[in-house]
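Handout, tutorial session.
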Amino acid sequence: MENIPFLIFSLLSINNASLKGHNDFFTDYIDLKNTFSVKGIFVWLIIFKHYSGYFKRKNMYIYEIIVRHIDQRVVSMFLFYSGYGIYESIKKKGNKYSKTLLTKSLIIFIKSELMILIYVLRSIIYRKEITIKDYILSAIFFSKIDNDIWFTYTIILFYIYAFFSFTFIKNKKHNYLGIIFITIICILHGYFTYFFYLEKQRCGVDNILPFILGFCYSGIRKYIDKYIMIYDFSYFGILIFFCLIYSYFYVNRYISIFIHILMNGTFCIIVVLMNMKIKFDNEFLHFLNAHSYSIYLLQRVILTTFNEKKYLEEYECLRLFLQIILIILIATTFDYSTSFIDKFFKRVDKRLETKKHVELVGESQKNIEIKK
């Protein structure tokens, strides 16, 4: 019965989907609007993936086989699109955009702290023992209170790395140096995190490559489009090639973390290639994407509660539906309640930008007067 919700979400996702014909491709396959839809699909896959982890059975449903196969690669696409979007914005707006990444990191940090308070409140309501030490360690991403800390920790650090990699590059012609810098920084991050911090927990290390690939793809996209989006023969040949590589990495994924990293990167490339031929575009997916961060980080409030209290154990399909609705409800409520944080920092950024512009105009006028 639990396959029914999965089927419904699948049908909702393919609503208004379109497919290109022979030797024809979507030129806007990785534009902002299209990535919203793809991320929307991965949002509900994340919910199903975590649900299957909380409520395990001897015989798995079809959807469980699918989501457990995809596993953390549902998050890989978010980091790939994040890296791609950052570099696209830097190419258009210059290094001044990289400075906004610190503001975005601060917003994410503040919201994550508020989310931790929700988990604390849940623990208090259900009389689950929690100490001040537990809260502090969770607040600085060294421990967790039922919540996911690695995703927030990774996103914040990656944004800070991007800031330092691009903010001092004045000439757009030298943007490639920023890609080199962030690649080196992320590799060092992965090495020290994995071997000196949490070796048993990958802690975002396996998603370093997707983030870097996003920057690289943005940098060389015009060449990829030029040589791949010509004939179906070359396109499908390259797609099959990467599918075979991915299969090899998947079979050997437990050999080393390095293979796991390559597998996640290859998965991102396959999804991007598929989007050249298939486009998903509907409001349902856009809605899920708009609340993706909150859905991802707050879903365990509902999942943990239902798991611990054994709610609706005998009604699996109803239990899954109800949890999905509650997860989306709590995420949207949180987003609307904290929207003032985003608005506040946007106003601060505008004021600083206006002030800087006024100062530059004043300096230029002084220089003109001096010359006269």
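The second record follows below. Compare its token runs with those of the first.
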Amino acid sequence: MKKRVLFASLAAYPLFNRKIHEPFCGAELDLYTIATHLDTSKFDVHFLVADYGQPLKETYSGITVHRGQKISNSGMLRGILNFFRIFLVVWRVRPDSIFSEATGWLTVELILLKTLFRKKFIFRSAHENNINGFTDTRPYGKLYRRFMPHIDHFLLQNNQDISILQSTFGYTGKMSVVRNLQEIPKDIPLPQEKRAHILWVGRSEKIKDPELFLKLSLLLPQKRFVMIMPNLNENVFRNIASKARAIPNLTFIPGVPRDAVLPYFKEALYFVSTSIKEGFPNVLVEAMKYGTPILSARLDYDNILSEKNCGTITGDSAEEIASCIESMSKDTWETYSQNARAFALNNFNVSKGIHDYERLFLQI
């Protein structure tokens, strides 16, 4: 008998229905990639998404996609109605296990329902905040901390997070590190001389520090910069968009469809990370699979820079990043590029890594 797995990621619907041009993040891409690569001879795969006005139930490439709650959970009445919608999906599907990623009301709801229906719940951290001093004072933050011990298996993005999870929350359940998975293109990465721009991709959040990338572009007016930022925080987005559009050598793009964003990574000379906190974001994987060196202002991302030489930590000022770009030799660039591509092939290749998830779903 097939194992029935219910994936839950509300904003993932645009990945199934490409006619829906709404933003999504790395967590949605993670679950979509895993769900679409499971062996359907072994698994009955279901996916809970938000209400985008689609039918109650649809099928995409063998995956049953269920319409759940509205994205917004504001207001007590809306919250109760949304919970009831999620309840109905779990009741209809009756999964052996439920798999979700990233914190929020949905996580709390799924933990309650997994207890009610006596199912297994697998949770994957999407960000350092999920495991390192999650201090959100809103009700779901408190409930998340309260219900964390009921997670049956905690999946983490890097090795450091295991010790952080234990020391911060005292979590003693099952834990394992499973890296982000993506399809790795077979074509050879572009050489340095055919790379067109310096790239930044991220959500419109202060924790991503997009201001630093704007300052960098002003310091190097002879270079071409591209910033891709979906509008997920209106105030941050408007502020950055206004400043970015006034910089002549910077192209600001307010989010693009999934298939259209990949050429920007492929043609990038560098990928610049300015984040203050992160887990292991998918944008790094997308850069590395095309052999694009990583320039990180602050974070080492599981030592891929200091130990694996997939790029370098520049320092957290625009002047330091600019100096790194201006002084980097062709040989150093090629070393970073080759290492990044090789690391992606060996660690993020979905055709290899999917077997780890299949074993987990079969054994839990």
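Points raised in discussion: The chain has 13 helices and 14 strands.
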